[in-house]
Specification:
Radius of gyration: 20 Å
Shape: flat
Number of strands: 0
Structural class: mainly alpha
Helix content: over 70%
Number of helices: 8
Length: 205
């Protein structure tokens, strides 16, 4: 089943790149929420609320069909990865935000007592503790992203479900193809959860 492996590879690439965008941009959103000026906090809050409360499929269509009219055009794959990454970055931002707020006040005071710089305080004291606390929640969004990868078929990305559906249309054997896809998603989700649990144990100890 070459179509299966090709589709699986595309799905895993979407998941990997989308997760990287989600985690990195989400952290930037979370740091912006703590900016000392409301002229940064308010726009960031409005943008993230808008993205979080807009369906991912609408965002996909906007990026793929509307942006080219403004001279901004990417491939379907790139558009899909960016869309899913940005969409979930607004959720991971709230996870990071909760993790940062959970760091004891004493840690901030200790950093100030040691005369650590602002950057050093964040990189060496606050973020390591915050990220350690939020790994399980971030893992939940990795699984959620995996489940949303079939939406990218709406802009022509041949991920696992779309490739399987097109192949099944040739023989009308939808049951076998869709069953394999369902099992594949379950296996990937389970392996991802095991990996995240292992990472969580390493961070805790």
């Amino acid at each position: 089943m070459p179509y299966f492996w090709d589709g699986l590879l595309v799905t895993l690439q979407i998941l990997l790149y989308g997760s990287l965008i989600s985690f990195s941009v989400g952290l930037l959103w979370a740091l912006a929420f703590r900016a000392p000026t409301r002229f940064v906090r308010w726009p960031v809050g409005a943008i993230t609320e808008f993205i979080r409360n807009t369906p991912l499929l609408v965002q996909l269509f906007f990026l793929y069909f509307v942006l080219p009219e403004a001279g901004i055009q990417f491939s379907a794959f790139t558009t899909g990865v960016v869309a899913i990454g940005l969409h979930y970055s607004t959720y991971t931002a709230q996870v990071y935000r909760a993790g940062i707020e959970a760091v004891p006040v004493g840690q901030w005071e200790a950093a100030r007592a040691l005369s650590l710089s602002y950057r050093r305080t964040w990189s060496a004291v606050i973020l390591p503790q915050a990220i350690r606390r939020v790994v399980p929640a971030l893992g939940n969004y990795v699984v959620a992203m995996l489940k949303d990868t079939p939406l990218l078929a709406g802009i022509g990305v041949l991920e696992l479900l779309q490739r399987s559906r097109l192949e099944a249309a040739k023989t009308f054997q939808y049951t076998e193809a869709l069953t394999v896809v369902g099992v594949a998603f379950i296996v990937i989700s389970y392996l991802a959860s095991l990996l995240l649990r292992s990472l969580e144990r390493r961070l805790v100890h």
